Every structure is written in C-alpha cells, then in structure tokens.
Amino acid sequence: MKQIAQPQARLGHVARDLSSRLKKSQKIEWIIRPYLHEADHSRKIKLLDVGTGSGYIAHYFATHPTLRCETSAVDMTDSREIREGFSFQQVSDTTLPFPDETFDVVISNHVIEHVGTISEQAHHLSELSRVLRKNGVIYLAVPNRWMLVEPHYRIAFLSWLPSSWRTPYLRWSTPPPPPPPRAIITIASRYPSPRP
Predict the structure, then answer these.
(1) Residue range(s) defining the domain that contains residue 151
(2) Class of residue 115 by CB neighbours under 10 A (exposed 0-12, middle 13-18, buried 19+)
C-alpha cells in the first residue's frame, strides 16, 4: 500500500548575519525607490515585510532617515533579533492578516521557497497582491536554480541536482548536529520520560 506523505511542520529560516541584512536592505531600497514617486508623500509609506526573520529589513525601513515608512512585519515564527520600530504579527499560514490594498510596498525576500506546495506558493503570491495598493510595488526575491552555491545550506551545486537527489545528498554531505551539553544529558537521564 502506498503511503501518503504527511505535511511537514515549517521551520523558520533566519539570516542572522546583520552585515548581509544591511546590504540586502540597501539593495531592496535601491530597487524600489524609483517606484515610490507614485506614493502619496503627505503620509508615511506603508510597508510590509513578509517572512521578516531577524527583523533587520523591517527595522531598516522603519528607521530610515529619509523614507518615512510605517512598517509592519509577519512571519510564521518569531525569530526577531531586532524588534524596534515596526509592528509584528505571527501568522500560521500564507493568509495575511490585513485588509485589501493596505500597503504601498510589500517585501517577500526569499520566502516563497519556504512556503510549501505549489498551491500554497500561489496563495502566497495572491496574498501579496491582495494587500498591495494600486500603483504599489512588490519586491519579490526568489532563489536562482542555477546558482553555484545554495544559500541556505551553503553547498555547491545542490540546486542543480534532481529534486529526488537533494535530500539524500544533504544527509550525506551535512554533518550531524553536535550532541547536547553533558549537563542536559545527565538531567534527562535522572527523570524518565512520562508514559502516555
């Protein structure tokens, strides 16, 4: 009998290197700035960072010295290292908790590859479009299938492999995580696991 694959719990992916987040934020600003002339400058630019991770990109725009941004951020896990300057909401799926046409700018920086199935990815894109105001701008960064080094695992040629080979290759090429500290092992061995 064929087994049906169960959906996997999604884990957050957070870029913790703040210097790379500064460069990414500056790159996003450079790309979207020409489109901001459409925004009504009598009010703040409403910006949404989807999949905020460490929170650095949201913080960059919220505290920008010349762009006046009212910044919101969402993610499935709260992994923020920077929390100041923007509002944050934790979400449980691809549905965004905002009314239609709320934001002038929506940022989805390397999120879609973490979303799940093709239908969930399509829903993610439709939600980005739904919350965007007329004449707004979406910054959508997606992985390059032909990049030499895969950015999440930093393994050469991983994305070039057929999809059925990637997981076995990751298992083979990635060292196992280090064992927990000895103190945790000692405490765990003193107290047996509760029985169901």
Answers:
(1) 145-196
(2) buried
Q: Which of 142, 137, 80, 134 is nearest to 106 (CA)?
A: 137
Shared domain check, 86 and 155: no
Three-state SS for 71?
strand
Closest by CA to 48, choosing from 75, 18, 27, is 75
The verdict on residue 13 lying in a domain is: no
Say whether 156 sits in a helix, a strand or coil: strand
Task: Give the closest residue to 112 by CA, choosing from 22, 21, 20, 50.
Answer: 50
Distance, CA of 135 to CA of 192 (rounded, Å): 60
Under 8 Å between Cβ of 155 and 139: no
pTM: 0.74
Give residue-wise pLDDT tens across range 109-120: 989 888 889 999
Neighbours of 11 (CB within 10 A): 10
Give the mean pLDDT of 190-195.
Answer: 47
Left if phi > 0, otherwise alpha if psi is -120 to 50, otherwise beta: which for 46? Answer: beta
Q: In terms of domains, do 104 and 69 share one?
A: yes
